[in-house]
Write a structure and sequence with these properties.
Blueprint (H helix, E strand, L loop, with lengths): L7 H6 L22 E6 L7 H11 L4 E6 L3 H10 L5 E4 L8 H12 L4 E5 L3 E2 L2 H10 L5 E8 L4 H16 L6 E5 H7 L9 H11 L4 E11 L4 H13 L5 H8 L1 H7 L4 H20 L15 H20 L3 E3 L2 E3 L6 H8 L22
Parallel strand pairs: 1-2, 1-4, 2-3, 6-8
Antiparallel strand pairs: 4-7, 5-8, 6-7, 9-10
Helix pairs in contact: 6-12, 6-13, 8-14, 9-13, 11-13
């Protein structure tokens, strides 16, 4: 990318919001943030157009928005008309790579007008306070990782929330939105667009180049539920992501043999599921999760565990056949290992404008 890295002074100023704005009646208005919202998009139908447009009307008052649209020409034209005056609407310009979302993100970063960037999927719906918290955390971190939650919460999203709670209990979940410093991604030359698990690839790239990830399980960002059909289509692809985390993959591959082995020992099976429910409940309780995750979500853990046990072995079969199907092709690699990325960036020096940060735990917003 032919981009320049901002000076330290410019980088520090990039996250400072424009404060002190008042409306004609003397009421305080939301401060406009010196940040940019990048949304990669590739739609085949416009069922969610009205909802996303309404979201843009609110969001555009808070920060600049860039939509990188990989939809076909007819839908692209419809979107351009619907969002005129609300967003900057551009086509995908990064053409290499199997993962269209990554190509969209990199296309947006290449033309971004701000150092501070919020990347979000089309189903993400920020409230102002959560957006401020993510932007504020980028004062000292290179990547901020908030927590998604489904709103509303139909049955299939209750099912998927069980996975979220288990992830929170042992580490953190992988959301559909991140805050990132543009200079860090530019200095890295982007991140790999030929992997399936693009969120993990982004995190590992930031860390491999000397950056810091701030995990904020206490910043809750809503996302719209997928259709049941789309939800079902994601079961095996999500299991395939675990190839990027070999330890996790081994555990998930052991689920089905374990369940088969315990089929005649109902007491042991009940004890196993009770333990997993307890783990999920811990994930629900930490960092304010009880406020947004209903108690009923932990009861779906046994169903999710059984689903993942079956989906993992289907993912193994797909790996042997050359990878998982994605956008008309196949992707073999879930993500590059941290070791491989460190080797790639070992000789690269971090730019002076990117300040290292050692904080890894969540802390309250300072705005």
């Amino acid at each position: 990318m032919s981009l320049t890295v901002p000076s330290p002074a410019e980088s520090a100023a990039a996250v400072a919001p424009d404060v002190g704005r008042w409306d004609a009646h003397g009421r305080i208005m939301h401060a406009r943030l010196d940040a940019e919202y990048i949304l990669p998009l590739r739609w085949t139908a416009d069922d969610a157009l009205a909802d996303l447009t309404a979201y843009f009307r609110s969001l555009s008052e808070w920060l600049d928005i860039t939509v990188i649209d990989g939809s076909d020409a007819a839908l692209f034209a419809v979107h351009a008309r619907a969002w005129e005056g609300l967003v900057r609407h551009r086509p995908v310009t990064v053409l290499r790579g199997s993962n269209g979302k990554v190509r969209g993100v990199l296309s947006g970063i290449a033309i971004a007008r701000h150092e501070v960037i919020v990347i979000a999927d089309d189903d993400v719906r920020y409230e102002y306070d959560a957006l401020v918290s993510v932007v504020d955390d980028l004062r000292i971190a290179d990547l901020v990782k908030p927590q998604n939650r489904f709103d509303p919460l139909p049955w299939h999203c209750v099912w998927d929330t069980a996975r979220t709670l288990l992830n929170r209990a042992v580490s953190s979940d992988y959301p559909g939105t991140y805050g990132v410093r543009r200079s860090r991604i530019v200095a890295a030359g982007g991140y790999d667009a030929d992997v399936l698990f693009e969120n993990l690839e982004l995190e590992r790239t930031v860390v491999a180049t000397g950056g810091t990830v701030s995990t904020r399980r206490d910043i809750f960002v809503a996302r719209r539920p997928p259709s049941v059909r789309h939800f079902l289509s994601q079961r095996v692809r999500q299991a395939y992501d675990s190839f990027a985390q070999p330890g996790r993959m081994l555990i998930e591959a052991s689920i089905l043999p374990t369940l088969i082995g315990l089929r005649r020992r109902p007491g042991a099976l009940v004890a196993l599921f009770a333990m997993l429910i307890a783990v999920a409940e811990r994930g629900r309780r930490i960092d304010g999760g009880r406020a947004v995750f209903p108690l009923s979500t932990v009861l779906w853990v046994p169903l999710w565990v059984m689903e993942r046990g079956v989906a993992t072995w289907i993912a193994v079969a797909l790996r042997l056949r050359g990878g998982v199907r994605y956008a008309g092709g196949r992707i073999t690699r879930a993500a590059n290992s941290s070791r491989a990325l460190r080797r790639r960036f070992r000789s690269a020096r971090a730019p002076a404008s990117v300040r290292p940060c050692r904080r890894t735990r969540a802390s309250p917003s300072r705005l």
